[in-house]
Amino acid sequence: MRNRLLAVVAAVLIPAAAWAECYPFEAHASIEENQWSIIWQDDERYAVSEMYPLVMLPLFMHAPEKPQLLFFDRPIKDRPDVAMLRYYAGSPGTSVLVPIVEQVVFDLADAGKEVLRGTYSENCDRADWEWAQETVAVDDPAMGYQKVALP
User: Fold this and answer.
1) Which of 17, 112, 132 minimizes the C-alpha distance to 72?
2) DSSP annotation string for 72-124
3) Cis peptide upstream of residue 15 (ω within 30 degrees of 0)
4) How far apart (Å, rounded) are the C-alpha atoms in residues 12 and 10?
5) Using one digit for the tens of pLDDT, what is the confidence trace for 72-115?
6) pTM score, two decimals?
7) Is the dihedral of CA 127, 70, 68, 105 positive or negative?
8) Cα distances (angstroms) measured from residue 103 to each of 1, 44, 80, 115
9) Are 30 and 72 in contact (CB under 8 A)?
């Protein structure tokens, strides 16, 4: 009986410990440095930045939770207008919650026009993102493999 109880406790604590390693998420300094924040407009959430006033990125959620901005970068040195924003998009699930982080690649020169959106991580497992000089691709668990040309 005691061994069975220990096995049940271990089964509950080990996944909880793994989940705690990636949640709650902490915002990288790039969010504050680039003055990103979240606004509500017409019952929708958007990421906006005082440094990029024409950009207004929709934050699509996977669960009815509060989004959290996590990381901003311009990942390609020779393409300074290509940017990406990563955010916590909720933890859907019933008996097991699955934290999802989304990543949006967008064009700063074209009012934040979305280039590619996909899962960055799901249940702490990172999706494969491939960055090249001319393209970006993601092997999204929900949407499959997507590859697009960069502006």
Assistant:
1) 112
2) EE---TT-TTEEEEEEE-----SSS---EEEEEEEEGGGTTEEEEEEEEEETT
3) no
4) 5
5) 999 999 999 999 999 999 999 878 889 999 999 999 999 999 99
6) 0.83
7) negative
8) 47, 18, 17, 11
9) yes
Burial 114-135, CB ≥16 within 10 A → b, else e: ebbbbbbbbbeeebebeeeeee
Amino acid at 127: A
- CB atoms near residue 99 (< 10 Å): 22
Tell me the percentage of the chain whose pLDDT exceeds 90. Answer: 77
The residues near 45 (Cβ < 8 Å, ≥ 6 apart) are 38, 39, 58, 59, 61, 67
First to last CA, the chain: 63
Instruction: Please name the residue that has the structure tokens 């959620």.
Output: 61
pLDDT tens digits along 20-32: 456 567 899 999 9
- Note whether 111 and 87 are within 8 A (CB): no
State residue 43 phi and psi, 5-degree precision: 60, 20
As a whole number of angstroms, the distance between CA 131 and CA 103 comes to: 13
Taking a C-beta distance cutoff of 8 angstroms, is the pair 105, 126 a contact?
A: no
